[in-house]
Structure formats: C-alpha cells, structure tokens
C-alpha cells in the first residue's frame, strides 16, 4: 500500500494542469467521474474553514448599532424578543450586543431583516 501522507503531499502540490490531467486519467482508466475526482483531489488542499461555515446551523444575532431610527429599533427588539420596553431600550443602548444566541438560520435571517428594516446594523455570527 502506498504511503498515504506522501500521496497527500503530492496531491497538494499539483498544478491546475496536473489536476486536470489526473481527472482525465481517473475518468478514462478507472471510471471515476470528474466531479468526484475534483472533490477527492481538492479535499486535502482545503483548510476546512469553508466546510465549517457551510455546516453551521446555529447563529448568534449581534446588534452592532441602532442606526438613525433608535426608537423603531427598540420597538422591533421589544416585539421580536418579547421584552419590556425598558429591557429592549437597555439592550439597544448597549450595542454592540448579542440579542439572541443559538438561533436557526431561517429565524436568524428573519430577525436580521426585521431589525435592518427598522434601521439597525445587525451581524450574524
């Protein structure tokens, strides 16, 4: 069996032309489709950062600033989070502040859109 570490090092050092040639050989001689071969060849070269971001399912909603319409943002925070007016105002005044943690992507995007419509600057982390 081949030394896997040495093989991985060789794959990482391939040029684009060499990768294309490898894909052609794998398809013609071994019946491996180009998409699967490209993933197999590109896999070791990646740093894994993109895969972690793509797989992320829980987000924190961070209110960066209230913008020019602070009152609208306070009302929106109050309605979205079910807070009292005083608590919502304190949260908005404390920006940047995390307003909700561990939220599903769809809900996080919905809250972000509502707050941005009210004039706030929001970031999902």
Give the tally of β-strands: 3
- Please give the count of helices: 7
Which whole number gives the mean pLDDT?
Answer: 78
Estimated share of beta-strand residues: 15-25%
| Termini gap | 44 Å
Oligomer: single chain
Provide the succession of SSEs.
Answer: HHHHEHHEHE
- Helical content stands at 55-70%
Indicate the overall shape.
rod-shaped
Low-confidence stretches: 36-49
Biggest sheet features: 3 strands, antiparallel
Tell me what the structure shows.
The chain has 125 residues and is of the alpha+beta class. The chain contains 7 helices and 3 strands; from the N terminus they run ααααβααβαβ. The protein has a 3-stranded antiparallel sheet with strand order 2-1-3, covered by helices on one side. The protein starts with a helix and ends with a strand.
